[in-house]
Amino acid sequence: MKYQIRHTTVYRYAEPLRHSVHELRLTPRSGALQQVDSWQIHTPGNLTRAADGFGNVVHHFTLGNRTDDVTIEALGIVEAFPAGSPGSQCFVDAPGEGRYRVSPLYFLSATPLTSAPPEMVAFAREQMLVPGDAESALRLAQAIAKRVHYKPNTTHVGTAAAEAFGLGAGVCQDQAQVMVACCRALGVPARYVSGYFHAVGEEDLASHAWADVCLDAESHTWCSIDVTHQCFTDGRHIRLAVGRDYQSAAPVRGVRQGGGAETLDVSISIEPLPAEVA
């Protein structure tokens, strides 16, 4: 599937903003699961572009003028397709020649958002995850979706996997972080994925999150699993960034001076392109 995507983020401040620094992971990259045909980012400041250690495209901009709002817009066309050959759910995500990327083994270590308490470790062991086996990883995801029910407005961006597991509820971000935490607790590298999801009637999931599970670290082979929908990712998913947890893959992060109280408005449209255009 080929999609035209527009993602607008607007920050409004009760008092003038004096100074701010912004970090964006809002640019998808082409790879085994998608092809980026075009992509642009518009911000009020001059953008610098780099790649982080996970392979994500990262932009930064700084504002030094007083302002009451900041608008960030990303838009472009991306073609998404399932992993591997028919019947195969694996894909290779290795750095290109001359490029640096952390080893998949780096995704074995827990973070404050993905630490697993004893009860979560016990739950994960019960699911009998087999290293290198994508189907057993999918079964773990299905068990997590039943244990941590999808329920909007029960958590926030700072909610840890252990908290969501204890609540038994959360959103896609929480389900993905529980998946990552369970895999790591069993010695299997896993990473958090931020991105977009397109399905009629599920517009609230346009901004989505899921998990990559490493099948072979030496060859950088992974499978990508949508815990919320209990499936391997497919042509409905567009990847933005990967990280150890939400914080290291967040689409927009920043620090500021001034501004007072802040409100945030996010608008995302994902439109399938007609066959003659695609």
From TrEMBL:
Organism annotation: Ralstonia soli
TM regions (residue ranges): none
PANTHER family in alphabetical order: BLR5614 PROTEIN-RELATED, SLL1049 PROTEIN
Name of this protein: Transglutaminase family protein
Matching InterPro entries: Bac_transglu_N, Papain-like_cys_pep_sf, Transglutaminase-like
Alphabetized Pfam families for the sequence: Bact_transglu_N, Transglut_core
Domain Transglutaminase-like, residue spans: 164-229
Domain of life: Bacteria
SUPFAM superfamilies assigned: Cysteine proteinases
